[in-house]
């Protein structure tokens, strides 16, 4: 339940204050470890034998209960799609959730906090409520939380983790002290990824947009080889076997496929206009070659179409047919005789 290496200074600074805020908003991009930081802060606040700098000891009854997900003075509020067991261990916010369950935090989940916050702590200390990600609250849940925050109990601390703070009610943001969290320096992130056994940490970190826990999750899910099944054929659009590729990738989740395509096209545009590659650094030679031959206007049109497709990618009527159309339109970028990308997908 310790913080990640790049979070130690921020955690020690926070714990060294005279008093913690009643509500703390942990804001930053996805996959940088905000949930892990919140878990470490929670453990420190509830620990019965804290270390000299204030961090949790990891061995007292409170730490053991928290690790087991049974601490009576802690409540975790997450989307219904996420298992309580995994979340209680401080799993990072980048983990994927089951597809069929709700991705929202419902009002009833927040209303259930009313009794919790108004009762005395079982261990004669503080109580902690962790909501992650806070923007997953639907409007009813957000209004229920606002009512609690308007008259917050003195011994309860609220930790709100958010990837998109602008999606929260302004009235909720105004009642929280904000802590902006940044991704670690690339060198530190790569060193940490290597310590976790990640092969080619530089490429993994690049494709995750600098988010180390996102890169770790992708490595554990064998995303690199799965992604290669899509991107390697895209390196040769003139000979692209669209139907065969769509069949090969039929079992992949469409949002992931579209996301991989979006990052690929971003790199093509960036290579052509700025001579830099952000995500797919391992395929730089192919990207540079394709970018020189592509029509930028067609790439931009395709990028816009992918953004529109991503909005409905979670519920495609026919995933394989959608992927076929995306691949056909991609191949058309290098074939001026095929007509303009029309956003059919």
Tag the structure with descriptive keywords:
alpha/beta; Rossmann fold; Zinc Finger, Delta Prime, domain 3; disordered C terminus
Tell me what you see in this structure:
The chain has 345 residues and is of the alpha/beta class. The protein folds into 2 domains: 5-182, Rossmann fold; 222-338, Zinc Finger, Delta Prime, domain 3 (Up-down Bundle). Helices cover 48% and strands 7% of the residues. It has 17 helices and 5 strands. It has helices at 8-15, 34-46, 61-68, 84-88, 107-111, 113-118, 139-150, 170-174, 186-195, 201-207, 212-220, 223-234, 242-248, 254-274, 284-293, 296-310, 319-332; strands spanning 23-27, 74-77, 127-131, 156-162, 177-180. It has a 5-stranded parallel β-sheet with strand order 2-3-4-1-5. Helix 7 links the parallel strand 3 and strand 4. The longest helix is centred in the last third of the chain and has 21 residues, at 254-274. The radius of gyration is 23 Å and the shape is elongated. The chain starts with 7 loop residues before the first helix and ends in a 13-residue tail after the last helix. Residues 83-91, 95-99 and 337-345 have low confidence and may be disordered.
């Amino acid at each position: 339940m310790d913080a990640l290496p790049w979070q130690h200074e921020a955690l020690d600074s926070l714990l060294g204050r005279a008093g913690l805020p009643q509500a703390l908003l942990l804001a930053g991009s996805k996959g940088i470890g905000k949930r892990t930081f919140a878990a470490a802060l929670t453990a420190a606040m509830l620990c019965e034998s804290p270390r000299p700098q204030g961090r949790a000891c990891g061995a007292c009854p409170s730490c053991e209960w928290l690790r087991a997900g049974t601490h009576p003075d802690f409540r975790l509020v997450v989307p219904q799609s996420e298992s309580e067991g995994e979340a209680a261990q401080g799993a990072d916010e980048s983990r994927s959730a089951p597809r069929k369950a709700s991705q929202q935090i419902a009002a009833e989940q927040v209303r259930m906090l009313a009794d919790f916050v108004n009762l005395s702590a079982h261990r004669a200390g503080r109580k902690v409520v962790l909501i992650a990600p806070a923007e997953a609250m639907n409007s009813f849940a957000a209004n229920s939380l606002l009512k609690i925050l308007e008259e917050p109990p003195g011994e309860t601390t609220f930790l709100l983790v958010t990837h998109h703070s602008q999606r929260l009610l302004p009235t909720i943001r105004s009642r929280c002290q904000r802590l902006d969290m940044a991704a670690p320096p690339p060198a530190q992130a790569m060193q940490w990824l290597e310590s976790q056994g990640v092969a080619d940490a530089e490429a993994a970190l690049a494709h995750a947009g600098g988010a180390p826990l996102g890169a770790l999750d992708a490595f554990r899910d064998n995303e690199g080889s799965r992604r290669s099944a899509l991107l390697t054929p895209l390196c040769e659009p003139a000979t692209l076997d669209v139907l065969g590729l769509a069949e090969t990738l039929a079992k992949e989740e469409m949002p992931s496929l579209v996301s991989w395509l979006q990052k690929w096209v971003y790199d093509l545009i960036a290579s052509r206009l700025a001579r830099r590659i952000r995500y797919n650094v391992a395929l730089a030679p192919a990207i540079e070659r394709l970018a020189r031959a592509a029509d930028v206007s067609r790439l931009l049109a395709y990028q816009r179409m992918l953004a529109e497709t991503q909005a409905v990618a979670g519920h495609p009527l026919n995933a394989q047919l959608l992927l076929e159309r995306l691949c056909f339109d991609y191949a058309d970028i290098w074939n001026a005789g095929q007509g303009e990308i029309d956003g059919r997908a």
